[in-house]
Amino acid sequence: MKAELIEVIAKVTHLLQINIRWMTWNLFLAFIPLALSVWLFRTQRGRSWVWWLGFLVFYAFLPNAPYLLTDVIHLIDDIRNIQSVWMITLVLLPVYLVVILAGFEAYVVSLINLGHYLHRIGKSKWILSIELITHALNAIGIYWGRFLRFNSWDFITQPDAILTRGVEELLGKQPLVIIAITFVILCGLYWLMKRVTLGFVNKDINSQPNHSHIHDHGS
User: Fold this and answer.
1) 2-41 vs 49-61: helix axis angle to the nearest 10?
2) What are the pLDDT digits (tens) for 188-204?
3) Which residues contact 12 (CB under 8 A, 6 or more apart)?
């Protein structure tokens, strides 16, 4: 029993050492659009060419945040390797849950910041439409990243490949089904997480004196 436990712990430790590399990298990529959203949408700055360049980079890197949802396939592989209910429940699941939620929360907050900006410039009625368009674009980006192995910087390094192979792939029946399912998942999870996030923010604001309530605009 002791030998088996030591073997399981050794396996878990080895997996975590491997996973920490790609988890850290994926989270870094996920937080790039979050940082850009703060710079673009939460600061008072004009829409210069630098702003528009940052906006394009923001949208190019944004799929990296919800992309972490697809890393559940690594969790499935790890569960098969570990085969210990306690280690899976107490170690693997919490680690994956924190990483995946952190990535998706970066996506949610990025779009909340975008919605805040649209409200500030008097375009509140655009928020829902832009959110839906963003979900659709990110569903495509997730498919490109997971199945075609494209990266955000491929828009610069190999735009021809994205315009040819990437677009061609979208015309197939299976890719369209996968993208549609991803779109529905993004819409549902975003709606839920946005409510939770704004609920925490409003609760924190309301607990402080002399602060007005932050209203949610859009979906």
Assistant:
1) 150
2) 999 999 999 998 877 66
3) 82, 84, 87, 91, 92
> How many other CB atoms sit within 10 Å of the CB of residue 134?
19
Q: What is the 3-state secondary structure (H, E, C) of the chain?
A: CHHHHHHHHHHHHHHHHHHHHHHHHHHHHHHHHHHHHHHHHCCCCCCCHHHHHHHHHHHHHHHHCHHHHHHHHHHHHHHHHHCCHHHHHHHHHHHHHHHHHHHHHHHHHHHHHHHHHHHHCCCHHHHHHHHHHHHHHHHHHHHHHHHCCCCCCHHHHCHHHHHHHHHHHHCCHHHHHHHHHHHHHHHHHHHHHHHHHHHHHHHHHHCCCCCCCCCCCCC
pTM for this one?
A: 0.84
Q: How far apart are CA 15 and CA 30, in angstroms?
A: 22
Closest CA to 64 of 162, 193, 154, 158: 154
pLDDT digits (tens, 9 = 90+) for 123-174: 999 999 999 999 999 999 999 988 888 888 787 787 777 777 777 777 778 8
